[in-house]
# Entry
Amino acid sequence: MKLARYGTPGIERPALVDADGNLRDLAGHCDDLDGAALAPDRLARLAKLDPASLPKVTGNPRLGPPVAHIGKIVAIGLNYADHAAETGAKIPEEPIIFMKACAATGPNDPVPLPRGCDKLDWEVELAIVIGTRARYVDEKNALAHVAGYTICNDVSARDWQIERGGQWVKGKSSDGFAPLGPWLVTRDEVKDPQALDLWLDVNGEKMQRGSTKTMVFGVVHLVHYVSQFLTLNPGDIITTGTPPGVGLGMKPPRYLKAGDEMRLGIAGFGEQRQTVTAG
# Structure
């Protein structure tokens, strides 16, 4: 099942994506796709609906983030061996955890270039969506706490992240730095989260090409590991790191400017498209 949210920011409506890619309005069956709606029994009820019985959404509405009222975005750094190598970093012995302290945006919303940022970068990532409360979870039961997956562009201000001291959160949390979507793909549709191809282009030029199979720490371990340090609640997000091809890793480095367009996707998960705008 693929779930989405559409409409004006802040008042999006829930929708199901049918087999032809059409949005089918779910407002008669759930108020929104928040943490409560991601509970296994609630998702099971939605899965039993006949998409043809739901109102078809007409036109080309804006898509919002596929999860409403996200409590927190927990991010994992340097989680692809080939990405760590391109940045000159050592492969971590344990997952590197940081927070993205920003509100999620829709998959095609603009990304504002923050004032004073000269090194804006891109990162296509698989994002885990938590469906049930997870605390001290073992690996055997980790996936039972996952409602599904989506795409995240972990937009990053590298100068703020690396050159301004302190924690990475400074370079990861500006407005527009967490585009999510276009859909939430429920866990039952993803046979193996460690066999997904990711890609990202800038202005039509190939930048990132990778696979989740090269993750240092896989989805199961990440849910287990993060839950040892903090409670994961329904609707929380874990972004899982990025494959090689980021601007920081190029020689010389290459960064985004106003007017640049990013397109990115994960096989079977749809795609995003954002334009960088002046902040």
Observations:
- The radius of gyration is 18 Å.
- The chain has two domains: 2-64, 73-278.
- The chain has a mean pLDDT of 96.
- The chain is about 10% helix and 30% strand.
